[in-house]
Specification:
Blueprint: H1 2-17, E1 22-25, H2 44-50, E2 56-59, E3 62-65, E4 73-75, E5 79-85, E6 95-99, E7 105-108, E8 118-124, E9 129-132, E10 135-137, E11 150-154, E12 160-162, E13 165-167, E14 172-178, E15 183-185, E16 188-190, E17 208-212, E18 219-222, E19 225-227, E20 234-235, E21 243-246, E22 249-251, E23 268-269, E24 289-291, E25 294-296, E26 301-304, E27 313-315, E28 318-320, E29 324-327, E30 330-331, E31 341-342, E32 348-350, E33 353-355, E34 360-363, E35 371-373, H3 376-379, H4 452-455, E36 461-462, E37 473-480, E38 484-491, E39 497-506, E40 509-516, E41 523-532, E42 542-549
Parallel strand pairs: 1-2, 2-6, 3-7, 5-8, 6-9, 7-10, 8-11, 9-12, 10-13, 11-14, 12-15, 13-16, 14-17, 15-18, 16-19, 17-20, 18-21, 19-22, 20-23, 21-24, 22-25, 23-26, 24-27, 25-28, 26-29, 27-32, 28-33, 29-34, 32-35
Antiparallel strand pairs: 4-5, 30-31, 36-37, 37-40, 38-39, 38-41, 41-42
The structure holds calcium ion (CA) (2 copies).
């Protein structure tokens, strides 16, 4: 009996040790409440005081209109921080500040205007902190000389910034400085422009900045988007450690929303040190990685090495309509006159796609000093609009998926038959088909083996649909020479099955069926006829025809 009681007691202790607290914050909360779901707090600042490693602070949906008297701390007599997160979690037990599932908390800082101070919405200096699902807007600038306010100022390590929306701030979206091993995941930063200080052109306001010192390794941006920021989309001019950009998009930077010219306007400004003297340059100079990224219609360069003192790794990026799509300009050396622009060196560019640059596809590339392989601009591919399923730039701003990841787009996706498909070189990333495609978006069309006609008896016929293009109904006609099972399926341009039209035995004859695309968006679709028959002895038994739905 005693043993049983002891066992039960220990189990009770162990069970409770694994349960972390949930603390609630709501727009109608009060910091004198207890922080339960029924008695929510008003601020993250109060919630931090109650939280321990492993706990979750759930932030309810709605708008939080911050007041100036809610500034939690002024750092260095300069940075007025509304929220100051300095309590750290531990490895495996982050402190989570998460939007309540299914809800959208909006932090509006437009009423916070302290004189002679820079405003920071959330200042993160702790580590093992995870922010998710917050929208930060309305950060103000009051200083009219050189200054910079920030929606988020990140100075910690091992933090995760996920699914944050930083927009319409009179300042920078997110600036990271100092720490390492941070993940910036699926965040959007847009329409940020300080039109108050200096010349009012917002030359300091990037969507995302990342400038750690040389110990700040392991910072990664993945699935982020930056657009209409007054300076650059992403800027790592003073990063002392290598930064990775993976599957990030950057467009319309350097412009206001009416395309007035503002700041620098680079999609990805990858290095440079702004002509700093040798004493300020890290040794070795880091080599940054930019892969599967898209840069569109940025004022200056899509992808810019920005007088860096080393080469970067540029893999499978897509650039369209930037003034210069890929600018590999380097600085000659630490000792050299920093105003001399030198042809790029030590860069590796593979599988990149450049199309319709404003002035040129590339600049400052000396092919003898860099490794260039399988880029559209050195393969000599003759690319036209027909090579792409869509050139509709608005797809870049489409809503994210429910899990926060980037939307699926047809913009700059190679069209069926494009010479971009399988034209890349295998550099270790996953791909479909025989080889990687050129650019950021890999196609996965239903495969048509070119020798198929030789294998499948040619008396099986799938005719081209008519009308084509169609809207919304088209006719599909096929011929069957002897009794066979016929399955006709419609796929979209991503290779996803949309609809199965028939899947049944058909006797010898010619048949007509209709496909109604009234519920589908415009785009390229594929009609696939798969044939099974005892008489057939082939491995690939299908015929595919592309169809174009135009609404
Ligand atoms: Ca910048
Ligand atoms: Ca491929």
């Amino acid at each position: 009996m005693i043993r049983l009681i002891t066992y039960t007691f220990i189990s009770f202790i162990l069970l409770n040790a694994a349960i972390f607290a949930q603390i609630y914050v709501a727009p109608n909360g009060n910091d004198s409440n207890t922080g339960t779901i029924d008695q929510p707090l008003a601020t993250l600042q109060k919630a931090q005081g109650l939280a321990s490693a492993g706990d979750t602070v759930f932030i309810r949906g709605g708008t939080y209109n911050f007041r100036q008297d809610q500034i939690s701390r002024v750092v260095s007599n300069l940075f007025a921080c509304v929220t100051y997160l300095d309590k750290s979690g531990t490895e495996g037990h982050t402190i989570k500040y998460w939007a309540y599932p299914g809800e959208k908390p909006i932090f509006n800082f437009s009423a916070v205007k302290p004189a002679n101070e820079r405003v920071v919405g959330i200042y993160v200096i702790g580590s093992f902190i995870h922010l998710r699902g917050l929208e930060l807007t309305g950060i103000q600038t009051t200083i009219i000389t050189h200054t910079e306010s920030y929606a988020i100022y990140s100075r910690g390590s091992h933090n995760i910034f996920e699914n944050l929306s930083l927009h319409d701030n009179v300042g920078t979206g997110l600036r990271h400085y100092y720490g390492g091993n941070n993940l910036f995941l699926n965040c959007d930063s847009y329409r940020n422009w300080d039109n108050v200080s200096e010349n009012k052109l917002g030359g300091n306001n990037d969507g995302f900045g990342c400038h750690p010192n040389s110990s700040g390794t392991g910072n990664i941006f993945k699935g982020c988007r930056a657009w209409f920021n007054s300076d650059d989309g992403y800027d790592i001019i003073r990063s002392g450690a290598a930064v990775i950009f993976d599957s990030c998009w950057s467009f319309y930077n350097g412009y206001s929303t009416s395309f007035e010219s503002l700041g620098d306007g680079n999609g990805f400004k990858a290095g440079g040190y702004a002509y700093d003297p040798a004493s300020k340059i890290p040794n070795p100079v880091p080599k940054n990685t930019i892969e599967f990224c898209i840069a569109v219609r940025n004022k200056a360069n899509g992808f810019d090495s920005n007088h860096h003192l080393n080469g970067n790794y540029w893999y499978n990026n897509t650039a369209y309509e930037n003034n210069i799509n890929f600018n590999m300009v380097n600085r000659e050396s630490l000792q050299a006159d920093s105003s001399i622009w030198e042809n790029g060196y030590n860069h590796i560019l593979e599988n990149n796609l450049s199309y319709k640059a404003g002035s040129s596809d590339t600049a400052y590339i000396d092919t003898s000093k860099n490794i260039l392989s399988h880029n559209s601009f050195n393969l000599g591919l003759n690319i036209s609009d027909k090579d792409f399923v869509s050139l509709d730039e608005s797809e870049l701003m489409a809503p994210r998926k429910a899990d926060g990841s980037l939307p699926d787009i047809n913009f700059m996706l190679p069209a069926p038959g494009s010479s971009l498909i399988d034209a890349g070189v295998n550099i270790g990333f996953a791909f479909s088909g025989k080889a990687p495609d050129i650019g950021a978006l890999e196609t996965n069309y239903p495969t048509v083996v070119k020798s198929l006609k030789n294998i499948l008896p040619n008396n099986f016929v799938l005719y081209q649909n008519y009308p084509n293009p169609f809207n919304p109904i088209t006719n599909i006609i096929f011929k069957v020479p002897y009794t066979s099972n016929i399955k006709i399926t419609i796929y979209n341009s991503l290779g996803e099955k949309i609809h199965t039209l028939i899947d049944e035995l058909k006797n010898s004859g010619t048949y007509k069926i209709q496909f109604d695309g009234s519920y589908l968006p415009s785009g390229v679709y594929f009609c696939r006829m798969a044939i099974h028959s005892n008489k057939l002895n082939v491995t690939n038994n299908s015929i595919v025809k592309p169809m174009l739905l135009l609404k």
